[in-house]
Design brief:
This protein is of the alpha/beta class and 315 residues long. Helix content is 48%, strand content 12%. Helix 1 (21-31) packs antiparallel against helix 3, helix 1 (21-31) crosses helix 11 and helix 5 crosses helix 6. It is globular and about 55 Å long.
Length: 315
């Protein structure tokens, strides 16, 4: 992918359902006429970024989210069932919480005998709902999708090939979603090697990178009651340190306030879009400073022209 002049890339990070915050960020960037030359996405960032790059507006993506959450494909899926198990509502009664706990243990036990907890069809239907069946090279905006090859332990960046399949691979959370076979690769979540794909954007020629982080906050004093708690904490620390290292190469970092929301909690989709908008608006000053001069001029012209047309029409 070769460009001339200074180019601006948006790197959208992974984080499961928290990735809905990316929609809010895109809304603000469009409203503010911040012109992008490339989108790079990991996991949930690949899903939202891929949908946008393929031609959907942020509002259309938001509508797609609402439609999916109301569809039989989601309501009858194990994706919803598992989500209810890991994030029971604070208003649920004791019996419901007991059932939820037992369901969680069932899914954990099943994971010992299968490559994933979720049936492949459930996650594939999610990807198909948002993403058209096209080649990555056909997207309206240049798009990069990051996955991880489990066999060689390497980052894999897709700039061509099936858009749906590449995003499915990037979203294949280890243990939750079955890895994707692609030639000699066995692909899983891009977040294993690059939670926010800044490095991929730089290698593709981006001069300015705006990074969006939607990973869950690392708690300072968690409780360690089981071996699983310790194991999860160790992985969380490793992921956080790798992410911080890559974020150093970003020009602007946007952090929507997702708190400690679980990656499968679909109940707060609208809230997540809103917090994405809020975070992007707070970052506008830093984004403006990072933009190349000609991009600033384009943005200024885009904002002033409608008002000039109105004055001219008034005369």
């Amino acid at each position: 992918m070769r460009w001339t002049g200074k180019k601006v890339a948006l790197a959208l990070g992974g984080g499961g359902v928290r990735g809905f915050s990316h929609v809010g960020v895109l809304m603000v960037l469009e409203e503010e006429r911040i012109d992008l030359d490339l989108i790079a996405g990991t996991s949930a960032g690949a899903l939202i970024g891929g949908a946008y790059a393929a031609g959907l507006s942020p509002r259309e993506i938001r509508q797609k989210i609402d439609e999916y959450l109301a569809s039989p494909a989601f309501l009858n899926s194990e994706l919803k069932s598992i989500g209810l198990s890991v994030v029971p509502s604070a208003t649920t009664n004791r019996m419901t919480r007991v059932v939820s706990s037992l369901r969680t243990r069932y899914y954990m036990l099943r994971s010992f005998f299968r490559p994933s907890v979720l049936p492949p069809r459930d996650f594939a239907s999610l990807i198909d709902h948002f993403i058209p069946d096209i080649d990555i090279r056909e997207t309206r905006l240049p798009f990069l999708c990051v996955a991880t090859d489990l066999l060689k332990g390497q980052e894999v960046v897709f700039a061509e090939g099936s858009l749906r399949r590449a995003i499915l691979a990037s979203c294949s959370v280890p243990g939750a979603v079955e890895p994707v076979r692609w030639g000699e690769w066995l692909l899983a979540d891009g977040g294993i090697t690059s939670l926010v794909p800044i490095r991929a954007a730089r290698k593709a020629g981006a001069d300015v990178v705006i990074a969006v982080v939607v990973d869950r906050e690392v708690l300072e004093s968690p409780q360690f009651e089981t071996a699983q708690d310790v194991f999860y904490r160790a992985g969380e620390i490793t992921s956080d340190r790798l992410q911080l290292e890559e974020l150093r190469d970003a020009d602007v970092v946007i952090r929507p306030d997702v708190g400690d929301l679980h990656w499968m909690d679909f109940s707060r989709a609208r809230d997540l879009i809103r917090v994405g908008e809020e975070a992007a608006r707070k970052a506008l000053g830093r984004i403006e400073e990072a933009l190349p001069i000609y991009k600033r001029a384009f943005r200024f012209a885009g904002r002033i022209m409608p008002s000039l047309r109105k004055r001219s029409a008034g005369r």
